[in-house]
Structure formats: C-alpha cells, structure tokens
Amino acid sequence: MMMMMMKVSELVLVLSCVLCVSADVFHEDLAIGGCSDTDGEDMYSLDGEEKWYADFINKRGVEPQPSFMDHTSYREGTYEQAVTNQQICRSNLKNSRLGMKDIPVENDPPSGLIVYSRDEVELGVKNTLICHVSGFYPAPVNVSWTKNEQKVTEGTSINVPFPLKDGSFRQTSRLEFIPQLGDVYTCTVRHPALNQPLTRIWDVEVQQPSIGPAVFCGVGLTVGLLGVAAGTFFLIKGNECS
Hints:
The chain folds into two domains: 2-99, Class II Histocompatibility Antigen, M Beta Chain, Chain B, domain 1, CATH 3.10.320.10; 112-203, Immunoglobulin-like. It is 21% helix and 41% strand. The protein has helices spanning 78-99, 212-241; strands spanning 2-8, 11-22, 25-35, 40-46, 49-55, 60-62, 112-117, 127-136, 142-147, 150-152, 156-158, 162-163, 169-177, 184-190, 198-203. A hairpin with a 2-residue loop joins β4 and β5 (49-55). The longest helix has 30 residues, at 212-241. The N and C termini lie far apart (95 Å). Keywords: Adaptive immunity, Disulfide bond, Glycoprotein, Immunity, Immunoglobulin domain, Membrane, MHC II, Signal, Transmembrane, Transmembrane helix.
C-alpha cells in the first residue's frame, strides 16, 4: 500500500506500509523516505522499532538495533539506493511546489514532551537521559540539552523522525551522563509551529531506601516474642503452684 503525505509544500514523504501475517501474529513493516531543501530521511522499521536508516551527514547506513535483539542486516548498496531516492524526492518536491503553491502551510506543534532516565539513578554510575517528543508536523524537531544552565553537545544523539498513524511524528534525543546529586538538566525543543521553545527540567534525585516498615516490623516481632515468653513463664509458674 502506497500513501502520499503532502500536508505542506516544503516536505514530501512517501510511506510504504506492509502488514505481514505469521500464524496469528501481525507485524507492521514500515519504510519511509522523505526530503526537504536541507534534510533527508530514508528509514526501515519493524513493529515500531528502527531497523536501518541512512545517515546522510556521515554518508553511511546505520543499524541502531540493540545487541540483545536478533540482528537484521540490509544488503550491500542500500545506502547508495537511499541517495538515489533523495535525488528523485527533490525532483518530485520541485514539481509539487509548482502545483501546490497556493496551498497554505500546516504546522502542528508537539503535543507530548517527556524526559526520563533509561535506568534507575545511581550516583556516579553512567546512565542515559531520554527526551521523547511526539505529535508534531512537519519533521524534524530541534532538540538541545543543558546541564546546570550550560549547553551540552557531547554525548548527545537523536534518532530520525518516526511517523505515527495520525500523520504526525515522534522523535527521541538521548544524553549520556553520570548522575551527581544537585545537577539539573533541561531538554529544549524547537519547531516551526511553536511560538516559543518547549523545555522540560530533570534534576538528579536518588530515592533513599525506606526503613520505616522494617523498623515497625522489627518492633512488632520483638514485642510479640516478649509476650510469648511472658505467657510461657506465668503458665509454668501456675502449674507449679497447683
């Protein structure tokens, strides 16, 4: 099934979506290619997980699959084909602008922005902050990080925009960091549909283990044992007197 999405004249996206059936299990295989004057995207995914995308800046294909997954490799020449697709896309974009010059631009601002840590926070232990943006159109968004009000670029990364079923996009930026008590981080998102940037604050907090239940449990157990001992003592004394 081929579907053309042209909500604005600045961006043309072609989506190819195939539903594969194996026994009683449905899988969604998605390919997306897109371009603008300055950006381009060519990506494949399975069940919402990115399997391969073209990195046009470093001129290579990327397989962002974690090590614990069954690795899928794409055939040689996939990146070169993505470059060719970009040339075709820009040619189509030029023709589309001629035919859509009077169509107003539609922009949808992000509807969701959350920041969270990948793992449970432990002071001094390397972790990853995740800034998840969703519900925006067109793609991409611009994401920036700060630590204690100082801009941070080292250790940051961002995935390619991922299309949602309503025609909007989601995108995720990551920041590798080492938690230290008192540090404050921010994730700021910029998009053409926003009058001002969106910012979320995340500060390092470590939950201390609660000792209350253990203390009360210990006190209760001690009182209970004392009660049993006292009862046994008086029972023995009563039997001796009789």
